[in-house]
Amino acid sequence: MQTRTLGRNGPVVSALGLGCMGMSAFYGGRGDDAAAIAVIHRALERGVTLLDTADMYGPHTNEMLVGRAIAGRRGQVVLATKFGVRLDPSDPQARGVDGRPEYVQAACEASLKRLGVEHIDLYYQHRVDPQVPIEDTVGAMARLVEQGKVRWLGLSEAAPETIRRAHAVHPLTALQTEYSLWSREPEDNGVLATVRELGIGFVPYSPLGRGFLTGAIRTPADFDADDYRRHSPRFQGDNFARNLALVEQVRALAAARGVSAGQLALAWVLARGEDLVPIPGTKRLAYLEENLGALDIVLDAADLARIEAVFPPAAAAGARYPAASIGSVHR
């Protein structure tokens, strides 16, 4: 397994991690815990070491699932989880953000119990709370490091100035945000430049465009009724058709190389720099193996130019989040 180092002083991890969210939340269908655990076990067998979850996935059930999967295998895992998004059990669409120091401590204690571990390797603030100074939140996270409950700290979907202020309180090891062929905002909004300047690792989530870049999604009818993507602007109406046309061109380039569209899309992310560790998610063994195959694809300058020609920056149609959610990112 190829490895990369997260940040200047962070852990050495597999070049490709595993996002576990979809095993329990957001992408529809009843979760099959046994199948999901089999995927995690196979990932570990293949040398994947970075597992990513969050307390809000489920909510809570994904952490418990990951905890069961890594029982007896803790030494093989760099375990990442997140806090900060609070859900309303009575309204699945309602959520808030909480960065208060007392909540940071309580959330960590709860995650440790659900995961069945004594420490969390990488602890992210899932979304920045605009009502709480980032210095206060990260100060509380730093105390978790002092207590031995957390090893490294990260932020998710934070703006450059927020990243700088947080990093001044306690060094950040990773910044997680959406990044893929169809979500290239970090290149233009200063996030990628900032983390590279500060020596912070970059963890792209949804590197396959929430599955769309695989080419397997052909119509909105492919989604289950409770699938989050039914409400995402990029998967609706004319946007869907325009984005599908882009993916068709990626499929053609991939076919010419004898690889899948998803593998080519992942190889593109991996080629953006050794400081990137994407975390594609899947709950199927076949897709796990396909994703890992992207590590064997080497893209040269000509390959990258061809991909850019058919899928240039800002080509994707539609916002990456619904209006109700977009306000919580890049704070």
Describe the protein's topology.
Elements: E1 3-5, E2 12-14, E3 18-19, H1 33-45, E4 50-52, H2 61-70, E5 78-83, E6 85-88, E7 91-97, H3 101-115, E8 120-125, H4 134-146, E9 150-156, H5 160-169, E10 174-178, H6 185-188, H7 191-198, E11 201-205, H8 237-257, H9 261-270, H10 285-292, H11 301-310, H12 323-326
Parallel strand pairs: 3-4, 4-5, 5-8, 8-9, 9-10, 10-11
Antiparallel strand pairs: 1-2, 6-7
Helix pairs in contact: 1-2, 3-4, 4-5, 5-7, 8-9
Descriptive labels:
alpha/beta; seven-stranded parallel sheet; single chain; globular; 11 strands
Protein model, in words:
By secondary structure, the protein is of the alpha/beta class. 38% of the residues lie in helices and 15% in strands. The protein has a 7-stranded parallel β-sheet with strand order 3-4-5-8-9-10-11. Strands 1-2 form a two-stranded antiparallel sheet. It has a two-stranded antiparallel ribbon with strand order 6-7. Helix 4 (134-146) links the parallel strand 8 (120-125) and strand 9. Helix 4 (134-146) packs across helix 5. It is globular and about 55 Å long. It starts with a strand and ends in a 5-residue tail after the last helix. The mean pLDDT is 93.
Structural class of the helices, strands and pairings?
alpha/beta
| N-to-C span | 35 Å
Helix content: 25-40%
Oligomer: single chain
